């Protein structure tokens, strides 16, 4: 039986509420903070943020799978929306790029994450960074608000990815753009991994095929799409052993199936005017 959309959301919300109460070291010993601990590696998903300007260690829960803010082409004065803002890590880095004249809006549907992010912003005196509780399939943001949208390892947790890309286009200004890091697949994961709740909250089992993911972006009407970064995610055998038998692991490792972190850029078409303009 496939989980319903609501049950998936409830599961992810519950999981990330507990993660909000943990420190980074606890989360980093897991795949995207999911708790599927490995003795072979510590961060099998996350990239290193520590060299980026605006980084604050206590806002980094080790839950990402890329560095979208590094590639997001944020300019001073921009309005930036961070989807799945967690404790505020990407939002604070985005704020460094926008400067005092810009605005950063973080959206997260886990109340504990919103509370933690707001406390982090208040402690630093950031008056142009705010956090709103809400579903990124129905963002609590007006049309044509953002110059830039960023997100880090969040859309793969959302059942209705088409709806999220539609919402991203709605909240972006004409000519605005996004940079999103996410987990995608090449080939089919074994059912034992896809159906495991811990792996779902750990950013793997909710992923879809790379070509489909990129296709959804194009279908939503974005242009000038480009994959800015791509890396393969290697799941260690001691993680796989929790879900697959020895024979299944051998077959999986030889199958060519791949789990990848990609950072994707795309633009909302610029407003056009005149008789030759498209509708």
Please outline what is shown here.
With 279 residues, the chain is α/β, with parallel strands linked by helices. Helix content is 32%, strand content 22%. It is globular and about 55 Å long.
At CATH level 2, the architecture is: 3-Layer(aba) Sandwich
Helix segment tally: 11
Please state the CA-atom Rg, rounded to the nearest Å: 18 Å
State the CATH superfamily name: Vaccinia Virus protein VP39
Low-confidence stretches: 27-42
**Remind me, CATH topology?**
Rossmann fold
Count of separate structural domains: 1
Arithmetic mean pLDDT: 82
N→C terminal distance: 43 Å
CATH class equals Alpha Beta
Main beta-sheet annotation: 8 strands, mixed
Strand percent estimate: 15-25%
User: Would you count the extended β strands for me?
Assistant: 8
**Secondary-structure element sequence?**
HHHEHEHEEHEHHEHEHHE
Structural class by SSE content: alpha/beta
Quaternary structure classification: single chain
Globular, elongated, flat, extended or rod-shaped: what is the shape? globular
Q: Portion of residues in helices? A: 25-40%
């Amino acid at each position: 039986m496939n989980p319903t959309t609501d049950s998936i959301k409830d599961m992810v919300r519950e999981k990330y509420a507990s993660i909000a109460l943990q420190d980074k070291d606890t989360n980093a010993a897991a795949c995207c903070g999911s708790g599927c601990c490995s003795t072979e590696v510590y961060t099998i998903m996350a990239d290193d943020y520590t060299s980026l300007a605006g980084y604050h260690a206590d806002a980094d829960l080790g839950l990402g799978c890329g560095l979208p803010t590094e590639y997001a082409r944020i300019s001073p004065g921009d309005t930036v929306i961070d989807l799945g803002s967690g404790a505020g890590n990407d939002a604070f880095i985005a704020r460094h790029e926008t400067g005092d004249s810009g605005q950063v809006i973080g959206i997260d549907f886990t109340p504990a994450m919103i509370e933690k992010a707001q406390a982090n912003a208040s402690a630093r005196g950031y008056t142009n960074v705010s956090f709103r509780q809400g579903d990124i399939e129905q963002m609590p943001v007006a049309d044509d608000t953002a110059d830039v949208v960023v997100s880090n390892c969040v859309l793969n947790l959302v059942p209705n990815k088409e709806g999220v890309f539609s919402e991203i286009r709605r909240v972006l200004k004409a000519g605005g753009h996004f940079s999103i890091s996410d987990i995608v697949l090449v080939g089919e994961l074994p059912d034992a991994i896809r159906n495991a709740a811990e792996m779902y909250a750990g950013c793997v089992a909710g992923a879809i095929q790379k070509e489909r993911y990129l296709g959804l972006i194009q279908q939503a009407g974005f242009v000038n799409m480009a994959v800015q970064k791509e890396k393969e995610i290697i799941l260690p055998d001691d993680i796989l052993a929790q879900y697959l038998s020895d024979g299944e692991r051998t077959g999986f490792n030889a199958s060519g199936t791949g789990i990848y972190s990609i950072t994707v850029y795309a633009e909302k078409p610029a407003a056009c005017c005149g008789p030759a303009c498209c509708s």
